[in-house]
Amino acid sequence: MDPKSRDDSPSGDVQDKAPSRRGFLKQSAALVTGAASAGLAQGANAQALAGHPWERVYGAGFTGYGQPSRFEQPVMRHIGRPYGDLAPGSGSALAPIESLEGIITPSGLHNNRSHSGTPDIDPKEHQLLLHGLVQRPLKFSMEALWSYPMTTRTHFVECSGNSSRALAPQPAQVPAGAMHGNIACSEWTGVPLRVLLEEAGLLPQAKWLLAEGADSAHMSRSIPVEKALDDALVALYQNGERLRPEHGYPVRLLLPGWEGNMSVKWLRRLKIVSAPIMTKDETSRYTDLQGDGKSLMFTYPMEVKSVITHPSHGMTLRGAGLHQISGIAWSGNGTIKKIDVSTDGGRTWMDAPLAAPVLPRALTRFRLPWKWEGAAAVLKSRATDDSGAVQPEREKFIAEHGNNAVFHFNGIQAWSVAPSGEVKHVYA
Amino acid sequence: MDPKSRDDSPSGDVQDKAPSRRGFLKQSAALVTGAASAGLAQGANAQALAGHPWERVYGAGFTGYGQPSRFEQPVMRHIGRPYGDLAPGSGSALAPIESLEGIITPSGLHNNRSHSGTPDIDPKEHQLLLHGLVQRPLKFSMEALWSYPMTTRTHFVECSGNSSRALAPQPAQVPAGAMHGNIACSEWTGVPLRVLLEEAGLLPQAKWLLAEGADSAHMSRSIPVEKALDDALVALYQNGERLRPEHGYPVRLLLPGWEGNMSVKWLRRLKIVSAPIMTKDETSRYTDLQGDGKSLMFTYPMEVKSVITHPSHGMTLRGAGLHQISGIAWSGNGTIKKIDVSTDGGRTWMDAPLAAPVLPRALTRFRLPWKWEGAAAVLKSRATDDSGAVQPEREKFIAEHGNNAVFHFNGIQAWSVAPSGEVKHVYA
After folding, report:
1. Which residues, including other chains, have CB under 8 Å from residue A306's CB and lie 6 or more apart?
2. Short-list B390, B387, B397, B326, CA closest to B361
3. CA angle A213-A219-A223, nearest 5°?
4. How far is the alpha carbon of A249 from chain B, nearest alpha carbon, in Å?
5. Do A140 and A127 contact (CB within 8 A), yes or no?
6. What residues contact residue A210 under an 8 Å CB cut-off, 6+ apart?
């Protein structure tokens, strides 16, 4: 209890540390037993207690709404605008999954896809109309919606075109997020759609819903009434706060596990109908062209899938020794049951532990310590969900669906590690 | 399947809706049985499909990092700076819990407390020193820390001074967040501190750790080694992305459930010692003055607590009828087991369902439908955790701890509802 025992000076004999074999063995004895002593890569050698400038001055004051560190500016979404400045709001902003951890995606980095940009909606002027084959057509102001019973659930939203770059003849040398980042996962809060439909009173012939957005493209999809009555949400909040504009402010539909475009943003109308409406968004696009020239329609759930986010393309391992493999997995059909990871291109596989919580139709994080010997390696992950579905190899997906199946690609992703530590995208 | 069945015009006979009794009864039959027909407050009556300006123009393009809607600008943290412009970084920014839902707090609205402002730390220059009573003193660059095995967990961080305004002689007429918002909850990812301590090798006499920040106040606390080996995290990520500067970028300690100030931000040093260091931050402050003039030291866990966030001070109910009561609860000792809600000032209590997931040392959301008859009412919530601890009435807390116990206040919060619908803070 002697205050003088406080010591502000660093000890003399201090090692700069990369993770030692010993620490990892404690974590994962079964996985790395028999490993030789790990190489200890040396980090930057600045003195820890040199008295950096920020320790000598008064720091910044408080802000009403915080932002990331200026040193994190490179962590940005990957923006794809196929029509360039001619249509700047038509395209996608993909989550930089290579820089993220855990399963929650911060809303500022959440993927988004839009067909005519993000509308600037005044919530006081916006209303949601529920009409068609109902006993009582209803119109909800945002304020009225607030008073309904809400529920909170964590779900991913994946654009059905996510990962389509993996169909290219040569592997795209781009970060993981630029290829697979049209997915993200948030905590959503809203009113179960079932509650609103029960209040309106569905007529016997009510079998489908037309969901329509208030963007100038009036994004529209037909949705089976069974899904609407099951787990669909009229979402008002994302990660604790009101929806962001690009994610559907002030209100969006959320259809857990289904194609992202069906979770219609800026929701202005639900018309109850007896048959699919065949909107432009379910005929001219979001149909899945197969190898035989036919197209699949109404392919709703996103398939079981995974990707290793660290290490991934563009990173360089600091040297032989112990590293952590970390990645995300998901399935629109349910809950991730198992992740296999291979470091030899798929010849042998290891079971990767899943980080809690493992939630249905949500991202699931897996992590596995890996002792890299310094030789060339190929990393793969393979997800299995609780329906028994297994993520296929890329070649198998293409053999079954062809090279133009730009929606619903869920093939296994491979990253090569060179002896230099450099990580690249390969087909393997 | 007839495309012509698509109809862009609204139905003629449409009701503007507040939630009807029918919808709520489906949700909570047991709770509102016997209620008379609900009053249907009328919302803003703008036409839902009038063709708002944003439906006729191309929307905004993509951004690398998204932000809230401009219409959400009023949702800001409540800033308290006791020394004003003399020390703009000394104080707190409190989460606007009255405007939030679910259990995840967006990082931009997460509460933060600092003693000398937010340092602008370059992660390439920052290191973490681990020394003292260890076999091998170690120094970690942020890059080296990245390679260690990580884990992800959702936990609240509460300043031990949270809610101390409830000790004032008269009830403060401020929003819920300005009184109880020095708490927030995030998904944290980092390296278990145990892994680093095991690598350094604790000597037999190692009983405590000094944790020290790199802010210019060098915020410092003594921590029992048992907590460090149990669930302490060296946190690098918050809600999926790297920590924000005000939350400890590039690395902070996280001691789940304990006083927020002990989760030392901008962590630069862990010195392993044999006894508490008695730093300024555990002697001159963060001791709990009791009614008898004595002070309690080293009161680590934050007590079981809850607060109704909706409705809460400053809101006005839209009229008699069905409303949703929503609130948050938490306990540093474990998991929330039960929430009782009263609408008559504590004479009778109802069991409020807990929203999944209910996680240890995390915020837990509870919600309860309430049929308000339009008469004066007093709302209270009372939390019980799995250790059996029950949140006390305010008077009981003061009787036990006195009026100066500005740390660890966990008394029950009361909101009055006037016949006009106006909600105010009351002692009741």
Report:
1. A327, A328, A329, A330, A336, A339, A366, A381, A382, A383, A391, A412, A413
2. B387
3. 85
4. 7
5. yes
6. A132, A220, A221, A222, A223, A269, A270, A271, A273, A277, A279, B6
> What is residue B72's DSSP assignment?
G
- The CA distance from B428 to B425, in Å, is 9
* Cross-chain residue pair A62–B77, CB shorter than 8 Å: yes
> Could you please report the per-residue DSSP string of A80-95?
E-TTGGGSTTSEEEE-
Q: Is the dihedral of CA B142, B146, B150, B155 positive or negative?
A: positive
Please state whether beta strands A267-273 and A127-132 pair in parallel, antiparallel, or not at all (unpaired): parallel
Cα–Cα distance measured from residue B321 to residue B227, given in angstroms and rounded to the nearest whole number:
48
Q: What is the 3-state secondary structure (H, E, C) of A153-192?
A: EEEEEECCCCCHHHHCCCCCCCCHHHHHCCEEEEEEEEEE
Q: Is A280 exposed, middle or buried (0-12, 13-18, 19+ CB in 10 A)?
A: middle
Contact A129 B10 (CB under 8 A): yes
CA distance A210 to A198: 17
The pLDDT of residue A295: 86
Find chain A residues with C-beta within 8 A of B148's C-beta. 19, 23, 324
Helix (H, G, I), strand (E, B) or coil at B109: helix
Two tokens, residue B370: 């309430």
Q: How far apart are CA B324 and CA B318, in angstroms?
A: 12
Instruction: Quote the pLDDT of residue B39.
Output: 26
Sign, CA torsion A76/A79/A85/A87: negative
User: Which of B15, B108, B214 is closest, CB to CB, to A136?
Assistant: B15
- Longest CA span, chain B: 82
The mean predicted confidence, pLDDT, of chain A is: 89
Task: Say yes or no for a CB contact (<8 Å) between B246 and A5.
Answer: no
Q: Which residues of B touch A46 (CB under 8 A)?
A: 124-125, 127, 141
* Residues belonging to chain A: 428
Cβ within 8 Å, pair B367-A149: yes
Question: Residue A193, SS3?
Answer: helix
Give the residue among A394, A405, A393 at the shortest CA–CA distance from A293: A405
Of A64, A195, A318, the CB nearest to B26: A195
What is the distance between the alpha carbons of residues B315 and B293, in angstroms, rounded to a whole number? 39
Q: What is the pLDDT of residue B18?
A: 59
- ipTM value, please give it: 0.90
Integer Cα distance of A241 and A186 in angstroms: 11
Locate B27 and state its tokens. 């949700």
**Nearest one of A169, A2, A141, A329 to B278, comparing CA atoms:** A2
For A55, B38, B156, the CA distances from B122, given in Å and listed in that order, are 12, 58, 26
Q: Are A200 and A138 in contact (CB under 8 A)?
A: yes
Low pLDDT (below 70) residues in chain B: 1-14, 18-50
* B183-192/B233-238 β-pairing: antiparallel
Query: Could you tell me the pTM of the whole model?
Result: 0.91
- Verify whether the Cβ–Cβ distance A52 to B121 is below 8 Å: yes
State the pLDDT confidence band at A36, using cuts at 50, 70 and 90.
very low
Distance of alpha carbon B170 from alpha carbon A3, whole angstroms? 40
Supply B329's token pair. 């609860």
What whole-number distance in Å separates Cα of residue A322 and Cα of residue A20?
A: 7
Can you give the pLDDT at residue A51?
A: 80
Return the SS3 of B70: helix
Chain segment A286-321, per-residue pLDDT in tens: 888 888 888 888 999 999 999 999 999 999 998 999
Condensed to tens digits (0 to 9), the pLDDT of residues A247-282 reads 999 999 999 999 999 999 999 999 999 999 999 999
